[in-house]
Amino acid sequence: MSIKNNLDPRVIRTRQLLQDALITLLSDKEFEAISVQDITKKANVNRATFYSHYEDKYQMIRQIVREKLVDLDSAMKNVDFSNYDGNPNSLDEMALKSYFHLFEHIEKNSYFYKVLLKRQGPNIFRRKLYEVLSTTFEKGIAFIQPKKNKYLVPGDLLISYISGATLSVISFWVENDMPYTKKHMAEYLLKISRNGVLTTAGLELN
Fold first, then answer.
1. Which end of the chain is more exposed for a tag (fewer CB within 10 A), N or C?
2. Is residue 203 exposed (0-12), middle (13-18) or buried (19+ Cβ within 10 Å)?
3. Above 50 in pLDDT, residue 203?
4. What is the pTM of this model?
């Protein structure tokens, strides 16, 4: 495989054609059922061109996933936590912004997420997305509460719950064609995070 200049507009355009072709194919077929020939035919390029950019379809999907999740990670971190002073209101504001940036990113890439989060989508994407969410929540919680002995449940269980729930919410949102706005989604997740499941469900707890 030859090494391409990543800044060459022709290289960027060809890779985008190949990536778009794979994503389109994934909307109808499982990843394992898609061949390099399927991808090149859909992108209207020859096999030699494909192999000048990627080793195989597995290296290709890994790169696509990595690039997209780097963007997601950057979007969620686009909040300044340095001014947090312990005030619950300022914490809510920062959490709301982080959630908003999350759903803003998902909305901009809704077709991509809808296809790759399908049950027959490549497992690597769901797994890597979970890892990004988990790392982000772990760092965020550690920032606002550095004393793990204050946690009411084990820390790893807490992070797993939040990350898994958020991943499910993202899947629900894109699979149902985003029935709520990104602003509302951010507000809803903040309410659940802030109040807990039972209170959010309307139960009055003493």
1. C
2. exposed
3. yes
4. 0.88
